[in-house]
Write a structure and sequence with these properties.
Radius of gyration: 12 Å
Shape: globular
Distance between the termini: 23 Å
Strand order of the largest sheet: 1-2-3
């Protein structure tokens, strides 16, 4: 079972699934792909609001990454891209 490190609800209503990842493990890619598929499915259903997935490899840059998501929230997102 996959459990993300954080779920963050932004003031814009967007919920972020945040994964803090320092080192790559054998199952990392599979977990991230599953999370992206889940976010896509939830967004397509529209019943749970808007969601996004963020992998943070350097926690010092987390605020910058979140700001980037907020700035582009209204644009069409490609869920396969890792930020």
């Amino acid at each position: 079972m996959y459990e993300p490190d954080f779920l963050v609800r932004l003031a814009t209503g967007l919920t972020l699934v945040i994964e803090i990842k320092g080192q790559q493990h054998g199952d990392t890619d599979a977990k991230h792909q599953a999370a992206r598929r889940w976010v896509t499915a939830v967004n397509q259903s529209g019943r749970l609001g808007r969601w996004d997935f963020l992998v943070c490899r350097d926690p010092r840059g987390l605020q910058f990454a979140v700001n980037g998501i907020v700035a582009t929230q209204n644009r069409i997102r490609v869920p396969e891209l890792e930020r």
